């Protein structure tokens, strides 16, 4: 930061102290900020104008800062190209940048950097755990280069951010391609056989929903799986809550190691995902938003069923049959699950042979995923590292 002066934030931004007209809020003419995205800093507006909380006005070009979540990245620029103001609760602060002293984007990037986190911890009593009102924010001194240098730094950061985002998108596409490999290979292997039946042919009984139980996370409560425990066709033993509600020893909702579980309600991409319960935690309850599938051991290999339910033909069937008025949440019924296409006549010996091949492939894929996750982590750490160097004058 050689040659950069220290300037209190109050010298380059001032708090806007306007309140919206209540009639404009009630009529919906002035929209209300719902939240600011931690990752992108984008403002998301509410659908409803009803509020019981005190409100502030935010005008185009203002810097909007969440007093509660500023340290997590909830800082936004309300685009100056907009013509109408918006409102936010009093837990936000709206600030007018002094364009003759500071570039608003430079300030936005800085306030979302580790450098500013360190300043918060140093100058604000209680650090990042304290609600960041104007009286605490504006006295904080920040390193500020000349305006022309600020703009150069912003240009460089944004160019690098574009490349990082491209790398992130590429990594995500590769992850999806890897995830689809097993299902595609399975379908190609079985495609030579006739898909001559449905899933109910190999089930002992119709799928059964779990138990919709209130979870209070009591320390000594019984474990209840969360919907996220069955995601990406993998079982996660750490995704559960607890309930202190009375349970019956003979309840249908108790899990046994090796149980095949399917989500019956989720986003379109995740509904119908299945996983095999590995016995942990134990004892454990499965929730109403899942179904348990009990297969006929003399007809099918359970892992083959699990692999088959990942295949393109099954995913297409489920997406076509899933219902729901919300585009982000779909459900499948027991009847739909029972009608899932299945190669009923495929001998169990052939199923076991296919499972052995796919297990070996899955092992190699898991190794690739470990590498990909490491790469993704490194990509996510790039931008914070760049910001740290930028605002310490080392870029």
- CA radius of gyration is 27 Å
- Oligomeric state of this protein: single chain
Mean pLDDT: 89
How much of the polypeptide forms β-strand, as a percent range? 15-25%
CATH architecture of the largest domain: Alpha-Beta Complex
CATH topology of the largest domain: Adenine-n6-DNA-methyltransferase TaqI, Chain A, domain 2
| Domain count | 3
The backbone outline, from C-alpha atoms, is elongated
Structural class: alpha+beta
Q: What's the end-to-end separation, in Å?
A: 10 Å
- The overall strand count is 23
- The CATH superfamily of the largest domain is identified as DNA methylase specificity domains
Largest sheet, in brief, is:
4 strands, antiparallel
CATH class of the largest domain: Alpha Beta
Proportion of residues in helical segments = 25-40%
Number of helices: 9
If strands are numbered along the chain, what order do they take across the biggest sheet? 2-9-6-7
Low-confidence sequence ranges: none
Task: Name a few traits of the molecule.
395 residues; alpha+beta; Adenine-n6-DNA-methyltransferase TaqI, Chain A, domain 2; 4-stranded antiparallel beta sheet; 9 helices
